[in-house]
């Protein structure tokens, strides 16, 4: 029943054409938007604080190589990026590499509080800066893979990402206002999760929403999609850590 209603609502606005892509904060309620900007009312700051502590922890700390975390300014705006060995890394993947290869420690693990904390603390240093990922050279095939995934109809509902996030942005769906589906606010604290979560966790929720295959956290599919979303957001501000209902 609800599916029929959902589809009827969405079909009315398909083929509306490529509308303007707006910063995600424009789609938040005024209350949530204000709270996202205010560390004293943003529960995600518990992770930021933890991330800053982790940055300094241990003998071979992140800080021992990189200096003050303030020097990470602008980094999140450039990720995902292709590493020297040709792998596409998002910020989480880059941190895990430093953890294992430079610190000689076991990986934190995707979606662990430690990795979310470090990712949030580093991303915060780019807050307000314009997204500017590289998509040429070795990144080009990843961008194309991401674009294909974005444009392909998926799942039992047979919907492509853009049928919600382009054609129906600004409309309500199950109590949410549909945004342009950018990754700029992640990791984000989501009240429904009662905690911090990664972009890939959110993507899994969208895949489930259309009854499509949910790829693994950190999978090549979601990494390519993340690069495509970052390119879509080119010039728009990093908003992480976001706050969501
Ligand atoms: C022993 C030195 C060392 C330690 C310790 C280290 N890193 Fe790195 N990090 C590097 C180097 C070198 C690079 C450049 C890429 C490479 O060659 O691996 C890098 C790159 C990065 C980048 C990407 C920067 C950019 O401009 O693209 C991030 C983010 C990062 N490290 C985070 C961390 C975090 C978080 C920790 C702690 C968990 C950490 N690093 C620990 C040496 C280190
Ligand atoms: C049936 C409609 C629908 C489809 C199809 C859909 N999403 Fe979503 N998506 C939503 C809703 C609703 C939300 C929550 C409100 C919002 O932030 O847009 C959301 C949230 C998101 C967010 C988080 C935005 C934020 O800042 O919190 C991203 C990123 C996203 N979607 C990407 C995708 C991608 C990529 C696909 C295709 C694989 C996709 N979505 C497919 C409905 C959809």
TrEMBL record:
Residues annotated for heme c 1 binding in this entry: 62, 65-66, 98
Keyword Transferase appears in the UniProt entry: yes
Pfam families: SoxA-TsdA_cyt-c
Catalytic activity of the protein: S-sulfanyl-L-cysteinyl-[SoxY protein] + thiosulfate + 2 Fe(III)-[cytochrome c] = S-(2-sulfodisulfanyl)-L-cysteinyl-[SoxY protein] + 2 Fe(II)-[cytochrome c] + 2 H(+); L-cysteinyl-[SoxY protein] + thiosulfate + 2 Fe(III)-[cytochrome c] = S-sulfosulfanyl-L-cysteinyl-[SoxY protein] + 2 Fe(II)-[cytochrome c] + 2 H(+)
Predominant location: periplasm
Residues bound to substrate: 202
Record-stated family: Belongs to the SoxA family.
Assembly: Heterodimer of SoxA and SoxX.
Protein name (database record): L-cysteine S-thiosulfotransferase subunit SoxA
Species, as recorded: Falsiroseomonas bella
